[in-house]
Description:
The structure holds two protein chains of two kinds.
Chain A lengths: L3 E4 L2 E5 L4 E7 L7 E6 L6 E6 L5 E4 L2 E6 L4 E6 L8 E7 L8 E2 L3 E6 L1
Parallel strand pairs in A: 2-11
Antiparallel strand pairs in A: 1-3, 3-8, 4-5, 4-9, 6-7, 7-8, 9-10, 9-11
Chain B lengths: L3 E4 L2 E4 L5 E7 L6 E7 L3 E10 L2 E4 L6 E7 L2 E6 L8 E9 L4 E4 L3 E5 L1
Parallel strand pairs in B: 2-11
Antiparallel strand pairs in B: 1-3, 3-8, 4-5, 4-9, 5-6, 7-8, 9-10, 9-11
Amino acid sequence: xxxxxxxxxxxxxxxxxxxxxxxxxxxxxxxxxxxxxxxxxxxxxxxxxxxxxxxxxxxxxxxxxxxxxxxxxxxxxxxxxxxxxxxxxxxxxxxxxxxxxxxxxxxxxxxx
Amino acid sequence: xxxxxxxxxxxxxxxxxxxxxxxxxxxxxxxxxxxxxxxxxxxxxxxxxxxxxxxxxxxxxxxxxxxxxxxxxxxxxxxxxxxxxxxxxxxxxxxxxxxxxxxxxxxxxxxx
Lengths: 112, 112
């Protein structure tokens, strides 16, 4: 049973548009929420992460929004570029051992 | 790049044969992880290590064992490979100070 549910499975967005990926969780003990970007044939690369004490974090064109009461968090990719075409994974962890629970992934395609 | 290498990068093996995958890190991190990636499941934790000779099970540990005799090396062994273990295997390290997890390039294993 997946502890982190991610949607949508896939997403097509035009260049310059906004990509939005959503994740929901049940375990209120989760205290660290990273997003990873993965290109074909490569390992996941850490993109941005947030902790529950803030509601939003922005790094360049990437923003995480966090809603603790709804147990949801989302990734927004502003001004999407063809180079952003990749699979994105949300994740969560609950302890100092760093064990991550991953969502199933979202394949994002940015059309020129 | 967190100084993580995995070997081999690709392997095809037959059902019932033993297989060992190696993860090597150059930055002397204490925590290391093995995940498997399958379509529709994201990444799932197999085993992790919190120091030399200190290991523990993840959520999908059945059929796998690990060993860590040196800080820099974390080995994953499939004692008797099955077709259900066909997957892409990723090793990861945790940078303690940042609480951020970084992944290696992966090993694609096919069990025929």
